[in-house]
Write a structure and sequence with these properties.
The chain is mostly beta strands. The protein has 1 helix and 24 strands. The chain starts with a strand and ends with a strand.
């Protein structure tokens, strides 16, 4: 169970291929944690549910009651997350990934799903990690290995460290309200209390919702640390899940390719690949 360590300039990233292909630490400068660090126990668990950041493949968030309609057939998926009765976040977070390449500044991982357990369709997912001075780039892709078009999505789930003065800025158009089990109920225009078009503190907001119409840019600032992070994402990441749990010392800004629960409407053609990049760029305030 060997961690892969990347170093460039003031940035350092550790990756655990054996624990869901997850990032277990991301620091800047003198051990300033950009993402929540994973504990030794979390790393040893073999999954990435308590990591610093993990991949979302082949879907993001929850599928209500595990029911997925594909080509007129109703497929039922089993629960896969402790304490949650709806399948959540796909397979990648709970599987070991193969290391295809690794050096001091980058790594490439792959996970091939055989369709026998969990998600019923075969696919190959890849992650690439590249570290430069003040810039960390994560590439993600999923390739359809089936002989027909099937649902497929990708996303990234980073847990940013949260101070009392941490702020978030992002532009979105709509958001899904949710019920008590965090299942989407209706799409509405973004209300003022959830509007981050101007940078504002996250500490007085509680959210676990999927936004759409995202322009692919978000900004996180830590004024007391004099640190700013610009998060940018290419197509297909035009949805954003914002998770700000009450009382926790982290918050999440998750670029994803589809709305929560809607992966069934995101079909990937035979042999096709869905891919995109997410960039974390750090600067001083």
């Amino acid at each position: 169970m060997r961690l892969l360590s990347l170093r460039a300039g003031r940035l350092a990233v550790d990756i655990a291929p054996f624990a869901g292909g997850s990032i277990t630490r991301f620091t800047a400068g003198e051990s300033i944690d950009v993402l929540r660090p994973a504990s030794a126990g979390a790393i040893a668990s073999g999954t990435s549910s308590n990591a610093s950041c993990y991949p979302l493949v082949p879907f993001s968030n929850r599928i209500a009651n595990g029911r997925l309609a594909v080509d007129g057939a109703d497929i039922v998926l089993e629960p896969n997350w402790p304490g949650v009765r709806h399948p959540m976040h796909g397979d990648g977070w709970a599987r070991a990934w193969d290391v295809e390449r690794h050096d001091a500044h980058g790594a490439e991982l792959a996970y091939t799903h055989d369709g026998c357990a969990g998600w019923p369709f075969r696919y190959r997912a890849r992650q690439s990690f590249r570290l430069e001075d003040d810039c960390f780039v994560v590439g993600m892709s999923i390739e359809n290995l089936e002989s027909r078009a099937v649902p497929a999505g990708i996303g990234l789930h980073p847990f940013f460290t949260r101070d009392a003065d941490s702020e978030l800025a992002c532009r979105t158009r709509g958001v899904w309200r949710t019920d008590g089990e965090v299942l989407p109920t209706e799409r509405i225009d973004v209300p003022p209390e959830w509007d981050f078009s101007a940078s504002r503190p996250v500490d007085n907001v509680v959210l676990d919702n999927c936004f759409d119409g995202w322009d692919g840019h978000a900004m996180v600032t830590w004024p007391s640390r004099k640190l700013r992070l610009d998060l940018t994402a290419t197509e297909p990441f035009r949805h954003l899940v914002i998770y700000i749990p009450e009382g926790s010392r982290y918050f999440c800004v998750e670029p994803v390719s589809h709305a929560s629960g809607a992966v069934g409407r995101s079909l990937l053609a035979v042999g096709a690949t869905l891919a995109g990049d997410i960039v974390f760029r750090l600067s001083n305030l």
